[in-house]
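Re: folding output
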Amino acid sequence: MESVLSLLAELGAELLREFLYILPYLAFGVFLEAVIRTLKWHVKIRTALTRYGLLAIPLAALLGVASPLCACATLPLVISLLVGGLPLAPAMALLVTSPLMSPASFTMLSGMLGGEWALTVAVCAVVLGLFAGYVTHFLGRYGFSTEVVFRQELPKGNFHDPAYPVEELRCDCGQQLSHRVDRCTHNKFLVFGARFWEGSLKIGKFALIGLVIEVVAMKFIPNGWITGLLEGEGIAPIFTLTLAAIPLHLPQVTAASMVYGFYLPDPGQTIPLAAGPGIAMLVGGPVTALPVMAVFISMFKPRVLALYITLCVGGTISLALLWRLVSPLV
């Protein structure tokens, strides 16, 4: 019993040390997202997506990078936009891009892995979103138009309405603290504080999950096996990491926290991630979140899920291989 308590204390101390290091970056990222949500900048841009035809695809990709919404929150939004008339192509671009980058993700990636990796993942997110959007647009004439992607016809209406008939899509955001504060006070400062609290809980949870997985893995799995994959220069680590991440619920903050913990760099020290495996881990993991897959299966026809997985996995592997080739030249 004493040895178990000693082990738990050791793991807890290591977890606390790593969490305190990333805390300033987490707080700044949550601050940025709270500002965006309070001022509703992402909502204003989102309403413009239905107006711009093919230009909606790059707009959706950029919105996915700037939006503070995670994958699980983006999918109901995408479905509501599809019901409201948005073509599938920009919807797919938004759905692919959103899990990969957000203001908080960029801040935490910069702090934990360095600004170069943060910028790399942001560029990959936009490129993957554009790729997904334009491939989907090309396939529109082959059974991937908006009118035929759902398993059943969804009734029009407001997903925020408690009486909306499709329970899986019914949004309960009206019960969130920030919405209650807004209804009661209409005070932007108080609403910002509530949104900051909500973001701290959401993003902090994912960061802690990543750190817990990493601390436990470092204790019981040989570090050389994991870092060998992340630093590997061949193509095998790219395929291994991409395919291994598919069944995992690995949001961007969780993936970054795990990678940081495997190396625990000193301030200013560069983490020696190889270009290809780094992309496979930081892009391939977040883009195939299991909760998103579950909603896909219940709402969309199988071919749409197959297209999404093909775009995400194929796009990740292609980006990783391409980055592996060009990184020595940059």
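--- second protein (sequence, then structure) ---
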Amino acid sequence: MDNQVKEVHGRVEKEQPLIEATIDELKKRLVGQDEMINSVLIGLFTHGHILIEGVPGLAKTLTIKTLSDILDLNYKRIQFTPDLLPSDIIGTLIYHQKDGSFVPRMGPIFANLILADEINRAPAKVQSALLEAMQEKQVTIGDTTYPLEAPFLVMATQNPIEQEGTYNLPEAQVDRFMMKIKIDYPAKEEERIILDRMIIDEEIPVKKVLDKKKLLKICSLIDEIYISDRIKNYIVEIINATRNPLEYNLKIDTLLDYGASPRASINLARAARGCAMLAGRGYVTADDVKNVSFSVLRHRLLLSYEAEAEEITSEDIITQIFNSIVVP
């Protein structure tokens, strides 16, 4: 480890108590769901967005609301419905009759943390209203473009069970999400703890751990976390295997219509850096890449009809890819 990496590693270690305190405060209200907690923090630190799939009642809303309390950030919840309009998200121009002028009325997208609840309940035109905000961190109302204040995180949820009255997310929008997390029911022991905590109609208090200035300092430090050439090559090999599986003796070419896009390799590297930050390290390891790979890749692999007929999932394919590529 050279001096520059050691210096970054030391700075990351100094931030570790604040990150651990943030996780501890989150766990005062949340039971289990460690993957969701870690993924949301990685998304926040790396300026990524998170898509969460799970049935109702698994603390998705509670997670983002608690995070806003701990970090003292603005939070808005948008309930997606079939009659939602793009202006309901980004805002619109209001006419003032007295002076004949148009004044912008900002929509709920102008917040630090956005919960897009049941995003697949709104049609594509409404879903696309999020695209500019998610990718460019800005919103255009009329002829004026307004920047969104950093940090900015969209956490979208979708219900995997009830498909009546839902719309598939456009591929371009799905690719904008850094990670897709699948969450399941809690274990019996966890549910008993949830029952003990939530049976009383009182909100569990949490402390404000990080302010916006300290959070942005952590976000800027992410870009300095070291990724060696061998780890970069490892990431490229993983992504290339989704496009050219026969080069790696993988018999999955008939199971995939399309492999992962270049955005996948970028997000895999960014998410791995976020994983290293949570671990208190100033450098990325192969395990960091593996730990975030399912979340980064599962929504970027377009499965063929044959894969669906054989009930083969994107997770199955990702597992095969990792088993075939030599770990550096």
